[in-house]
From TrEMBL:
It holds the Pfam family ALAD. Pathway: Porphyrin-containing compound metabolism; protoporphyrin-IX biosynthesis; coproporphyrinogen-III from 5-aminolevulinate: step 1/4. PANTHER family: DELTA-AMINOLEVULINIC ACID DEHYDRATASE. This is Delta-aminolevulinic acid dehydratase. Belongs to the ALAD family. One of its GO terms (molecular function) is porphobilinogen synthase activity.
Amino acid sequence: MSLRPLFPETRLRRLRYSKVVRNMVAETSLSVDNLIMPLFVCPGENVQNPIKSMPGNNQLSVDMLVKKCGELLESGVKSVLLFGIPESKDEDGTVAAHEHGIVQKATRAIKETYPEMYIIADICNCEYTTHGHCGTIVDGDVDNDQTLVTLAAQAVSLAEAGVDMVAPSDMMDGRIGYMRKALDENCFEKMPIMAYSAKYASGFYGPFRDAADSAPKFGDRSTYQMDPRNSDEAIREVEMDIAEGADIVMVKPAMSYLDVIYRVKNEFNIPVAAYNVSGEFSMVKAAEANDWIDGKRVMMEIMTSIRRAGADIIITYHAKEVADILNGRM
Ligand code: PBG
């Protein structure tokens, strides 16, 4: 027997040869329970308006939205995040707080057919204002404190319509505390708040603004959303939101901000959500359509990376596809 030459002392590959062992030692898990699917609801009946920049996603009228919820439940996706495209808009977005507003209607309809569907309402004014900004404009900019009033009214109105959770995405200072108080005073003390805490002024929201018809008509959102260069500031935002009563904090977008997710998860003992936003979704779909990447594989890798970074919850337009893969249906 001849002696073999120098060996590596450590062979990490030993645990990679068998799929059984790879699964046994996997550090990150992904389940349909982690997923939330965003949906866009619009006026009309039997409307299924394809969103060109987000293949497979549609603006849905209430009846079609209910159908969609049935399909999602079938795949095991138990929660949706609703965005409304209203019939008409106004200066300060108060249409969002009408008893018969589009998301209020959608909520009642979903709950009638699928009471088990967990409904989260995005709370923001940008889909409801004529100018497309997230709040009331005073002297050419969004006024923080006036906007708190309309946001709280929107949250209470949606709570009355039957949503299970509210998710303020406006980035005004003090909105969580203000909204918590408004909800509590209206006997919704059990309603959780998922705060878009570290929400960046991002180019990745482009396709969403087509989907929700919410692009600002002047300027941009950099006076209220966060500067992509900052992460200490994200910690301060999260800290503030927790102190004001947030039950879940969110980092958004996800892929370019995995470091922020990681920091937030390590710094605070609170559930963390990550929003895998429209532009992140559309990039995968575009590259897949060109046969440049294996779309499904990349999608699962992205989901895994967001979980590995520390997110408990992933809000994603891929939710149904991911669920179908996890269920072995795709
Ligand atoms: C509303 C809101 C936006 C998104 C979620 N809520 C748009 C924005 O801030 O411009 C983006 C979601 C996505 O891109 O998927 N404020």
